[in-house]
Amino acid sequence: MKRLILAIQFLTIVPIKKGLAPDKGDLARSMAFFPVVGAMQGGILAAIDYGLSGILPQTVVSAILLAALALINNGLHLDGFADTVDGLAGGNTPDERLRIMRDSSVGALAVVALILLILIKFLSINEMNGSSRTAVIFIFPVIGKWCMVLLSCLAPPAREDGLGASFTANSYSTFVVATGLTVAASWLLLGLGSLAVIGVMAVWTYLIAIFFKRKLGGITGDVFGFHSELSEGLTLIFFLTALRVV
User: Fold this and answer.
1) What is the C-alpha to C-alpha distance for residues 215 and 7, in angstroms, rounded to an integer?
2) Rounded-to-integer distance, Cα 203 and Cα 49, Å
3) Among residues 49, 51, 69, which one has the least CA distance to residue 59?
4) Confidence class of residue 205 from pLDDT cuts 50, 70 and 90?
5) pLDDT tens across 69-82, in order?
6) Pairwise CA distance, residues 31 & 178, whole Å
7) pTM (predicted TM-score)
8) pLDDT value at position 164?
9) 220 torsion bin: left (phi>0), alpha (psi -120 to 50), beta (else)
10) Torsion angle (degrees, nearest 10) of CA 229, 235, 237, 240
11) Which of 12, 17, 37, 67 has its CA 20 to 30 A from that of 30?
12) Statement: residue 170 has pLDDT above 70
């Protein structure tokens, strides 16, 4: 239960049981429950979509869903996305990139990247209809959180004193639990074909791990946010493509 609470605390704004004193191992093992938190977020989004679809135009509802997700996350992942883009764009060496990522200011390129990311998510959600829309809205935060777990297993921390280091001391069992939960939820909601999307996202995460080991020497807390946001966007695109093909 402690690790589930830690996962909720880290990934959401829910004020639940403050004052815990986790060690590094607790933080890493809490990642087993990241897909559960993603399911909580997806459930809220699906409920909002169901409740507002008969009242407001679909374009407005799709925009509200993204605003709600950003609020639930407290903008944490979007901030990590922007900081990572700044570091990659402005630095020539791993140390320079890491230094820029620590800076709280946001550059013009990061702003443009954020706008494009949100636009892609919005358009992908808005193009979905029917029961599959509700299922995808529920599942895309789950897969996004699972991608963070896989990334933590594939790359070392770029800084030994950073937040990323607390989540890379992962165990095999943590990954197995997170994967089992993600696969089960996807299969139940979207069928066996959804596992192909998870497989593609696994390959994507492997490539991201290689990329950041070269660019930063490893991963950071900001990179987790960056990867989660991009993975959510790609998951939406892949499901939208699959639904159109079928």
Assistant:
1) 28
2) 30
3) 49
4) very high
5) 999 988 888 999 99
6) 7
7) 0.91
8) 61
9) beta
10) -140
11) 67
12) no
Q: At how many degrees (to 10) do helices 76-90 and 94-102 cross?
A: 140
- CA-CA distance, 146 to 185, in Å (whole number)? 12
For 3-36, write each residue's pLDDT tens digit: 788 878 888 887 665 555 555 566 778 889 999 9
Structure tokens at 159: 């800084």
On the CB side of 52, CA atoms within 13 Å amount to 17
First to last CA, the chain: 40
Shortest CA distance to 82 belongs to which of 241, 230, 246? 230
The amino acid that residue 189 corresponds to is: L
For residue 34, give the nearest of 168, 223, 230, 174 by alpha carbon. Answer: 174
Question: Cβ-count burial of 135 within 10 angstroms (0-12 exposed, 13-18 middle, 19+ buried)?
Answer: buried
In angstroms, the CA 116 to CA 147 distance is: 21
Query: Three-state SS for 157?
Result: strand
